[in-house]
Amino acid sequence: NACAQNTQWAIYLFEELAKRQEWASDLWGGVFWRLRLSTFPPEKLKWLLEVLDKHFANSQSLQGLAFFLFNGVEFSDQKAPSQETLQAMIRISVHIWQQIRKAEPAKTDEFEKTEWTSLAINHPAGYIAEFWIKCWSFIRPVSPDAHLGWPDWLKGPLEDMVDNESYAAQLGRVILGNQMPFVHMIDPAWARAKLFPKFIFAQVGDEAFLLWEPHLKYGQLSRDLIIEMLPLYRQAFRRFRNVQNEFAVQLYKHVAI
């Protein structure tokens, strides 16, 4: 609690733990859950990110670390992290993804009944997927590679998130399903080839609800996207005849638009 109220206390604690090389201490995780990245002064943040990048790849505090680094990162011009900080955060996010990508087996049942979006936004995989999307949305306008779709650093991890059969990958796909207009705008061909098949019940069974739930309940539409997705909506009608009424109504509302 002292750390949550006073960032200087947290910095002092982190520095002491680092001096003692107490990388496995539970104190790291306890502080991660109580702090916001934006409260750290730039010079201390640079040191902390270097420490985290170097020593926390195999940490037991990855969930708290992911929360501290990526939950609620602000990308407005006044509050966005510096480019140096963003590059460090990107490196750490990819490292954490490598640790969690196969840590838990994929869920195999109750796809229709599960509140997927709620699970995703409270899991490291969801924190990271949201960070990647918001980060590229922020960097892209000034990037020389803006017209090339996804940046090189993100292509591999995104492909892994889409193709991997694990719980973390499932929750990452939930976030992508929630952000379909942006994903489609960045690279329409990639969206058609990689994500559209995940909506098709005949191909992936009820796991298609992983994408439909966030897309229908919390996502938005664009004109280009709704036109391209019409075949996906049509194939979903048969399966949605037997789902809870509120969920099915969302499907019909999308088509009516």
Task: Please describe the topology of this protein.
Blueprint: H1 2-5, H2 7-19, H3 26-32, H4 42-55, H5 62-70, H6 83-100, H7 116-120, H8 124-139, H9 152-163, H10 167-178, H11 180-186, H12 188-195, H13 201-204, H14 209-217, H15 223-240, H16 245-256
Helix pairs in contact: 3-5, 4-6, 5-8, 6-8, 8-10, 9-10, 10-14, 11-12, 15-16
Quick take:
The protein has 257 residues and is mostly helical.
Walk me through the structure.
With 257 residues, the chain is mainly alpha-helical. 65% of the residues lie in helices and 0% in strands. The chain has 16 helices and no strands. Helix 6 (83-100) packs antiparallel against helix 8, helix 10 packs parallel to helix 14 and helix 11 (180-186) crosses helix 12 (188-195). The relative contact order is 0.08. The mean pLDDT is 90.
